[in-house]
Hints:
Strand 3 (77-82), helix 5 (89-100) and strand 4 (107-110) form a beta-alpha-beta unit. The protein has helices at 16-21, 23-33, 46-56, 63-72, 89-100, 118-131, 155-165, 182-190, 210-216, 224-230, 246-257; strands at residues 4-10, 38-43, 77-82, 107-110, 139-145, 171-175, 198-203, 234-237, 260-261. The chain is of the alpha/beta class and 262 residues long. The two termini are 20 Å apart. It is built from 11 helices and 9 strands. The chain is 42% helix and 18% strand. The protein folds into 2 domains: 4-113 and 245-261, Rossmann fold (3-Layer(aba) Sandwich), CATH 3.40.50.1400; 118-242, Rossmann fold. Helix 2 packs across helix 11 (246-257) and helix 6 runs antiparallel to helix 11 (246-257). Strands 2-1-3-4-9 form a 5-stranded mixed beta sheet, sandwiched between helices. The protein has a 4-stranded parallel beta sheet with strand order 6-5-7-8.
Amino acid sequence: MSKKALLAVSFGTSFEETRKKTIDRIEADLAEAFPDRRLYRAWTSKMIIKKLKNRDGVEVDTVPEALRRMAADGVTDILVQPTHVLDGLENDWMREDILKEKDRFEKIAIGDPLLKYTDDFFAVVRGLIDALPALGEDEALVLMGHGTTHSVNMTYPALDYIFKDTGFRNVFVGTVEGYPTLDSVLRDVRAIDPPVKKIYLAPLMVVAGDHARNDMAGEDEDSWKNRIEAAGFETECILQGLGEFPRIREIFVDHAENAAEV
């Protein structure tokens, strides 16, 4: 008889408050959807894992460690669900780690990250519009994604386009470390008529962690908040990660339910 497990894989965060509202909630929803599977956790950021261990004495498994732990526990059937936003580098590394340990198990299935197929984009748009403030004619929403050197970075401008194509012309997607840049976003915001006076800022990230608190809403001169205010706009920061929104969590559960065997 097979022994089943569910492995939730996240990048991780060193902020306990946002972890409880995001990663923990996604894991709880997954556990509820798969009551026949024991839940395990793994994070892909070794830097965050090390920081938590040194600062708080809290240990979190890497993906290889979690797989070895499950094998030692007698697990034979694994369902892996990442909480990553993109099918980028972190997801690639996760899959590589899983394939290296594949022979330890009878069956492994992996669910997709948040934004993989076209339907996912429309589902994320609906989930965010439901969760974030309704915009007045002179207001805009700017979502801050992480950005990546991986070709999957084109997910961000694609999502920006789908917001516009579904009627939300005052919603923009930018990135900290990729494209579109904040300068690109501000150029597009200035082109709107009637002119935008106020910009809401929110992270396009599962957790509202370091990037949201510092790069987006921080007090440094080069934070997005301060750069936008210097450009002449009123700002309001929404420090909520994607994992706090029920309709976004539903997408992760749906992807787990449709996981493909490897």
